[in-house]
Input
Amino acid sequence: MSEFFKLMKDVRFRRTMRMIFKFAWDFWWLSKQKYFIPGRRLEAKTKALYRKQAAYFTKTAMDMGGLIIKLGQHVSAQVDILPKEVIDELSKLQDSVEFVDFSEIKHKVESELGRSISEIFAEFSTTPIAAASLGQVHRATLRTGEAVAVKVMRPGVEDIIAIDWKSIQVAISLLKRQTKITDFMDLDAVYDEFHDTVMDELDYEQEGRNAEEFQLQFIHRDDIVVPGIHWSYTTSKVLTMEFLEGVKINDFAQLDAWGVDRTKLATSLIEIFVEQILLEGFFHADPHPGNVLVQPDGTIALIDFGMVGRIAGDMKTQMVALLMAVYLKDAHGAIDALTRLRFLRRNVDLEVFARNLTLLFEQINGDTFDLSFVTSGDNVEELRDFLYSQPFQLPANTTFLGKAIGTVYGLCTGLDPELDLIGTVKPYVEEVVRRDLRGNVFSNVVDEGKSILKGILPTTKKFISAVDKMDSGNLRVKLSSSFEQKLIETQNKNTQRIIATIIGAVSLLTAANLWNEVSHIVSYGLGTLGLLIMLSQLKTRGRRRAERHARQMNAMRERSRLETPKSKPRKSGV
Output
């Protein structure tokens, strides 16, 4: 408590605490009103309060800068936690603040590099080309003639951040008292992820290493460029890197003036990020338009690597398993993958969720995803309501992943609304499957085959038992010859499906075992054949179910027509 009163002497801490306690008081007073006003009016007042407080937070964050802006941007990605009214306001937050006076920047650069600016740079612009809450960027030219961008930590930002950490810790301790929040949100995990991310952003040497890792990652591509790092003029507080020309990727007018193929550009962008996520497990976590530039020839220039994310191998495996479950319209398989990914909240009613997920899968037509139903018109709001009402959560280690995916998808559809997302992503999913054929992904495919067998065998066993009883005379029910014939035909069809499924599973197992012993082409072909056989059984089962449903509906309509009472003829008057 003594530390708290000591911190209250700081103006910045007091302003933050005033905002926090104002929020707490408003919610407390609203909770008391539920006893005096109708439910519909209380709901309207609650939404209005959400919007008012979010707007107040946004204005305060823009005025104060520092971690408050970062915190708002971080939690704005939590569509699973925050109401729509809050998300709408926080999405207006921009990591942009007033410039620091050049005299302070000059002193910072010279103290960090140990030399005067004139000794290192032939030119150094006094006006920054970008400014954020933690640092700002100036264009300069080295004595060797190379154009560079110099990113400089804002003087005094360390002290500001130290105060902000204390404020955030107080806020979290208050939020932990709210069971409605702690029941489905791990506040400590969210704080840890936010803390680790910010601390990485405060280390410009780490950002330089991130940039070099991306350079190696994309060395095989000629449609993307990453700036080189000048380590001789880089410290933890000053980062000197190659200057890359370009315009923001959403500057459509300039792109069209240059004659850049926007469809090709969108395809390249989605390929780049799918490759980062599914193949490398290392991705740019802040791909907003200011960090994704386009050069006159259509090359993508990726910059600013302070915020990055990593995906563990087991998480990539479950992501592919989830994609396969969605492709197969397997609600229970998708739930299993979501559970392993920790995307489901605690105390979930899985049966209810499975039914809702099945309805969502009905939007998948054939082998393609009709994404228009969640990206157009009122459906956007319906999807947000679905995410908020259903038991989804973004695990702490995937907050930035979800935000990055959403941002990239928005950029790509802006460039080309007709982008073939599935066709673009499919080769990378196949590559992950090939890489992990002997690992967990292959096991999931085999498990899918087992589940097919589990679904077929009980029914087949009943048919075989019935036929055996008929042969032995132990079945006491009189069956018509037509029904008996249908019974035998159904048994034969199910037996054929069992045999086909077993052949498919054996082909996959054989392909895996021979992967390192024969040509990979042979193993891949054999494995693909096995997978196609197993998938064909699923499609056949679905088609038969649809045909059976259609027959039942026709029979019901016919019965309804026959049972409709006919009008009696009137008797003629005498």
Observations:
- The two ends are 105 Å apart (CA to CA).
- The first strand starts at residue 121 and ends at 124.
